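Q: A small favour: would you put together sequence and structure tokens for a protein?
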Amino acid sequence: MRGKGVTRRAFVKAGAAAVAAAGLARAGRAEEARKGLLWGALLHMGTNMWSDVPVSAWGPFKGEQLSLVCQADHLRFDEAVWQALTARMAAAKMNLVVIDLGEALQYESHPELSVKGSWPVARFRKELARLRGLGLEPIPKLNFSTAHDTWLKEYGRQVSTPTYYKVCEDLIREVCAIFDKPRFFHLGYDEETAGHQSKYSYAVVRQGELWWHDFLIFVKRVESQGVRPWIWSDYYWNHPEEFLSRMPKSVLQSNWYYGASFDAAKQKHVQAYLDLDKAGFDQVPTGSNWSCDTNFKGTVEFCTRSFAPERLKGFLMAPWFFTLPEWKEKNLQAVAQVEAAMG
């Protein structure tokens, strides 16, 4: 075809240039999509979230780590590890830390919830100032799921009673004040099923109208403080129709999935991301290094390309390793995976 239009070499060169340009455009769009997002990690101060689980029920834990699952009368938290993790998050340019509080604080409204080593509020306020100085926005998390409320002590066995509602309202009000009216308040609310409590010595599961009644009370209590509620979204997996019709759009959603494959046709947990986006919910998708080391990167890639940009608010890493020396490296690996995904 010499002399009649472009040569084969020029055609191939032009094609390669077009492919490269498309790749750069995609990379540019992905980079632009990542700007302004929340890049956070869930870190544990309190750990009494898993009730009376016998250690034999937890296969992933080995040796001495087994003792870390069950409830304790003391705070299982290492401040040096915490400072190392938050410093690493700041170095990675992450901008948010969700703090699982539980029994970690000496709540002034309910000091009976303290354990040995719980922090006084004044000390914790200084830590919040330090975190903000690092560029990390601190967000409180109190898990009010009946599957994860051992930190509530005797009140966890008074669910849906006037006393329970009053205690929870007190705690929400106090924590919002401690955090100086945070943007979000994570209510947990995950895994409240009989299956998740099948190994518990004492199980409580709210269902149907009672689940919604209590949940909406928590939403109102948080919103009355001028704060946006945030929850784990797994209730959707087994109740999709009622979730879509009754869940307020004001509630920030964190669907979570910790596997390696992002085939929505085979994974209902992955399909949930798409369903919630289509229904118009704001989301902070949550990944983890608990099961594999590729999940967080996959979560970011899948959700960035699948969501409407205005509904993708950020990403959260949930390592589920306590803030203790024996799990320091796993937590640091989690931060490194977030940094890589941000890049």
